[in-house]
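Dear colleague,

Following up on yesterday's call, I've attached the two folding results inline so they're easy to grep. Please treat them as preliminary; we haven't cross-checked anything against experimental data yet. The first protein's sequence and structure tokens come first.
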Amino acid sequence: MNPHENLSLAEAILGAIFLSLTIFNISRIPRETAWWYITVFCLFRTTGSSILLAVSLKHDYTNKGLLIPAIIFSGIAISPLLAASLGFLNSCTKHLPETRHPILRLLGIAHIAVIAALVLNIAGGTTMPYGAQSSSTSVVNSLNSAITYLRASAMVSLVAWGLILVSLVILSRHWGAFGRAARAFYIAVAGAVPFLFIRILYAILAAWAWKKGVVTAVPGGGKYGLITGDVGVLVGMRVLMEFLVVGGWVATGIWVGQRAEEFDAKGEEGV
């Protein structure tokens, strides 16, 4: 297999491993909604990478039935990660003295931004004329619309990331009110912020690498393309960033779950 195929295989395997660990965390901390978003991420990553591997092995770049879900699942994986960040931060708000704190509205707006980015990315993926052999007006228009959707999705994701950063700053003022679990999740999200930014930066660069009006048989994206892009860029800006984030969160969940079990065993108040 070539480097791109090896990368897709590695992504699928990592996705399956972290899916199992996330399900384990759900069994111990079922009330934390962020785990469900991480589960969705793992499913997207495993499914998208598996389909992408099949496309690459067969060199079947005209099969829209495979290309569309492969590109979409790989592209929208950032959305559940942003949603998971918001889920963890929402857990922190339960410790706030005010039941209607302004941070709740900010988190709600961020959730809307994440959903909008997801919808725009799906629209771009389904509109893209994969495998087109001609440069007819309809094909070019479809390509241009898809690129516009993808660029808008990347920028909206950046807005959502910015709102998460602002939320972290606001919540830091209430650090003293947080329990152990809330503090752990806050630190986990704060630690993930730089990696999420690099992943979103990759999405922005990939979206702008598409050239409007330029139709190619193999999906483009220049060195940021999933099929023909630079493997070093794909690993460093995309795959590594995603799984560093998920790995940190999963490890935090295991620690929090272990602490909760220790407190339960002692008959004390939970974390």
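Below is the second protein, in the same order (sequence, then structure):
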Amino acid sequence: VGIGGGVRIVSCPTCGRTGIDLISIAKQVEQRTRDITADIKIAVMGCVVNGPGEAREADIGIAGAKGEGIIFKKGEVIRRVPEEKLVDELMDEVGLMLGNKEKL
């Protein structure tokens, strides 16, 4: 709910346009961010059609496409990434945003 800071993860309910293993990826993001105390909102969206727009209030997020995904900040796409690297690349970006030099 955003009280007291910490990570807030938002995700879509999935639909026919979902292009990645959204539930698995959302669980990985949740697991890898559980110790972050900074106030940050991360979106994990299933498709590039609606994902960045629906999650534009998120600080950072990912949205899936067939076999790949995009990473976006405040609704603006910053790059495309193969699906298998999506979570690692997202965590690298979160670390940069938070000023962390270590791997999340």
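For the second protein, one point worth flagging: The longest strand covers residues 76-82.

Best wishes,
A.L.
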